[in-house]
Amino acid sequence: MKVKVGGFDDLNTGDALGKVAFSIFFQGCRRRCPGCHNPELQPFEGGREIDAQEIIDRIWRNRDWYEAVVFVGGEPLEQPKALEHLLKFIRGTNIEAWLYTGYSPGEIPEPIAALCDVIVAGEYRDDLKTGGFPASSNQVIIRKERPN
Questions:
Q1: H and E: helices and strands count for the chain
Q2: What proportion of the chain, given as a percentage, has pLDDT over 70?
Q3: From CA 32, how far away is CA 109, in angstroms rounded?
Q4: pTM for this one?
Q5: Mean pLDDT for the stretch of residues 25-31
Q6: Keywords, A to Z (predicted)?
Q7: If you average pLDDT over every residue of the chain, what do you get?
Q8: Correct CATH for 2-143 of 3.30.479.10, 3.40.50.10490, 3.90.1150.10, 3.20.20.70
Q9: Of 22, 123, 8, whose CA–CA distance to 70 is shortest?
Q10: C-beta of residue 26 within 8 angstroms of C-beta of residue 3
């Protein structure tokens, strides 16, 4: 399965609130939120297409370090099949899955939402900028407990 990505951050602590994380930047977004944090990821013709297994292998090699894998963009939900495929892999690990999306909670497909540990949902709004987390006050944070 192919995934269109704009890049990766192999080691960060900002996207998952202090947790050591691997971030995947999905390429492409139709929303075009004014003040977007990653406007270079909006065009669908940017980035590069890679096999999802390459991403899985990259995470697996460093699984003992990562506390979270963060799906950001662009818009990860523009590639729902690839996103769900990667989330299913993460679900089989002790690593948390974080999804940042411009979609509202009701617009997120249930199979995808069910595989996420944390979802930050809602379009970024520059007029509601918080200067913290979440980035704008209209965004909703959904935290879920994994079933045992």
A1: 3, 7
A2: 99
A3: 21
A4: 0.93
A5: 96
A6: 4Fe-4S, Iron, Iron-sulfur, Metal-binding, Oxidoreductase, S-adenosyl-L-methionine
A7: 93
A8: 3.20.20.70
A9: 22
A10: yes
Nearby residues of 3 by Cβ (< 8 Å), 6 or more positions away? 24, 26, 49, 50, 51, 52, 55, 79, 82, 86
* pLDDT (0 to 100) of residue 37: 84
For residue 131 the two structure tokens come to 């200067």
Residue of 135, 143, 139 whose CA lies nearest to 121: 139
Is there a contact between 78 and 45 (Cβ–Cβ < 8 Å)?
no
Residue whose entry in the numeric block shows the structure tokens 């990653």: 38
List, as one string, the DSSP characters of 111-144: HHHTT-SEEEES---GGGB-SSSSSBTT-EEEE-
CB 78, CB 52: distance < 8 Å: no
The arithmetic mean of pLDDT across residues 98-105, rounded, is 96
